[in-house]
Amino acid sequence: MGAKSRIAAAAVITGLLLCGALAFTARMHHASVRANEQAHVNRDDVLAAEQAVSAFWQEREVIGEVLSFPTERSLAGELGAKQFRFKQALGRIRASSSADRLDLERAKSANETLLAVFAAEPPLSGSPRDGRHAARLHSVERAVVDPIERLRAANRRDNLRAAARSSAAGGSAFHAEIATGLFGLGAIALFAIFAVRQVRRIDDQNVDLQAADTAKDEFIATVSHELRTPLTSINGYVELLLEDGADPLTEEQRGFLATVKRGSTRLQRLINDLLLTAEVQAGQLDIHTTTTDVVEIARQAVEGAQAHAGNKAVLLSLMAPSRPIAIEADVVRIGQVVDNLISNAIKFTPENGRVDVTLAQGEGRMALTVADTGMGMTAADIDRLFERFFRTDSAQAQQIQGSGLGLPIVKAIVEAHGGTIAVTSEPNVGTSFVITLPLAQTDTAAAA
């Protein structure tokens, strides 16, 4: 497991432990809140029960007055108000258990019975109600009060229990908060120490990798220099044999020598790319700028690539202004950029395709576009296009030759001239490269 993976694993474990501690703390808080809410409910029920008992006795008092003064008409309206208040008080009691609900129903039913006994056998107008009627009322009133008293007592007990649970849960939540805070600080400190050690290890590995990369570049540069001398000799003697008329060669021999020359030329080009890549990596890319006409550079590149395009039956065209476009640039390097882009476009374009080279200028910059109708690339390929030695999967599948060094070199040369390079592509549709470079002072003034 790498350092980054270990840091990620440690972060995940620390996060899970902290989440667990926070979840436990939240649970204790929730339990405390629930217990506190239940205590409030029980206190409200106790108060409602007391109000119900008070309302009942007020109702019973009015009943007694009606028994004593049956002709007092105002007492009838007062009795209705007391009955309504009693029912209101009962309605505010939130019975939580089945036993409490049963007592509540008993109290309601007993009060209805009381009212029915009171209303039964009304006396003659102006005469008092008899003593037997009053006795029956007294026997029913306890059936109303007793269930309400049981409700009040049960709610008081539940209130005390809920308050105790709320206090205990609140204490647990407080202790959990302290423990979670201490654990969090400790976990963060340990994770920070672990992460610092891993980052240092990554830094050390990066230093080693940079050293290895530098050594690799030096090795490539050294080997490339050593290969240049024998390749120069091979090319020289092949050309001498092909041009020497003293001892004519057969057509077969000339074919063999032409094959040797093509291979040595390709190898020479690869060596040059390797050396130039080493210079770019070392920050030693030499640029010797002069005022030059980029239209002429593009025209020469297109003319030089016509044979290659003709061999592949690819139509190569140039669209450029009739007047020169002056830039401050290294003629050789910019020519190398244009040659590379056109060569790549032809290489990745199938027969009967097109490669269009376009030049334009405006707002102090010029733009060179090389567009083809080739195999195209995916977005993932474009993201890695300028990495050294990168080649797309489609190029490898079709065994298209290449080193993967051309485009990184193109990008380095363009940026060394203060320019930019952009790519748009779509698989099986084509690719377009757009290079922008600043115009020369004189051309900028003329355009203005």
Strands, count: 7
Give a short account of the largest sheet.
Answer: 5 strands, mixed
H/E series: HHHHHEHEEHEEHHHEEH
Number of helices: 11
CATH class descriptor name of the largest domain: Mainly Alpha
Oligomer: single chain
> What general form does the structure show?
elongated
Helicity level, as a percent range?
A: 55-70%
Strand order of the largest sheet: 2-4-5-7-6
How many domains in all? 2
Q: Architecture of the largest domain in CATH?
A: Up-down Bundle
- Write the CATH fold name of the largest domain: Four Helix Bundle (Hemerythrin (Met), subunit A)
Distance between the termini: 61 Å
What Rg is obtained from the alpha carbons, in whole angstroms?
50 Å
Low-confidence runs of at least 5 consecutive residues: 123-129
Helix-and-strand structural type = alpha+beta
